[in-house]
Amino acid sequence: MRDINFFEPYIGKKGSKLDNKIITFTLSTFIILLIIAYIVYNAVIIKQESEIVEILREMSENPMTMEKVEFIKTKETKVSEFRDYVVKIKQLDSIIERKDVVDESFLDIITSKVPKNLFLTSISIKGGDIHLIGISKDKWAIAELQKGLEDLSHIEEIFVSNISFSENYYNFNVNVRLKGVDTYGEESAEKEEK
Predict the structure, then answer these.
(1) Phi, psi torsion values for 34, nearest 5 degrees
(2) For the packed helices 185-193 and 63-99, what is the interaxial angle rounded to 10 degrees?
(3) Helical H segments across the chain, by residue range
(4) What one-character DSSP code corresponds to residue 162?
C-alpha cells in the first residue's frame, strides 16, 4: 500500500518556482532584445531614407535641375499647343473632305468622257467651277464632250464659251458648274471653323 503525502505538492513547487523565474527572465530578455533590434533597424532605415531625401532635396534645389524642369514645362506646353493644332487641322480636313466634290476619281470620270479626236490642254478648278481648255479635230468631238459631261450627276451647268478654228484644229473653252459646291468654298470653310 502506498502512503499519502500531503506535502508532496508543496515540495515540488519550489523547484518549479525557480524554473518559472528563469523562463520569465529569459523570455523578457529575449523580448527586450527584439525591441532593441527593431528600434535599431528602424533607426538605420530612417537614417538611410533621410539621406535619400537630402540627396533628392539637393537635386531639386540645384539650379541646373530647375532649368531642366522649366525647359520640360515649356516643351510640354508646346506639345499641348501642337495637339490642339492637330485637332483643329483634323476638323478642317473633315470639313474639306465633305465639301470636296472634285477628287481624283471625278477627274478620271471627266477624262473618260473625252472623245478620241479631242485633247484637253488645261483644266482649272476654282470653287465649284471647272474650266476646260482643249483642241479638237472637229466640232462633233466638242459636242460629244459636252453631252458626256451633261450625263454626270455632279454637273449643274455646262457652257461652251468659245470655239475657234486655227491651224487645222478647233480650240475650245468649256465652263462647268458643279452641283452643291459653294463658289466661295474657302470663305464658308473659314466660317464653319469659327
Answers:
(1) -65, -40
(2) 130
(3) 8-61, 63-99, 104-112, 139-150, 185-193
(4) E
* Residue 186 predicted with pLDDT over 50: no
DSSP 2: P
Q: Grid coordinates in use for 12?
A: 515540488
Q: Can you read off the three cell numbers belonging to residue 76?
A: 510640354
Q: pTM for the complete prediction? A: 0.45
Which 3 state secondary structure label does DSSP give 136?
strand
Is the separation of the CB atoms in 136 and 117 below 8 Å?
yes
pLDDT beyond 80 at 6: no
Q: What is the mean pLDDT of the chain?
A: 82
> Grid coordinates in use for 185?
468654298
pLDDT at position 31, please?
Answer: 96
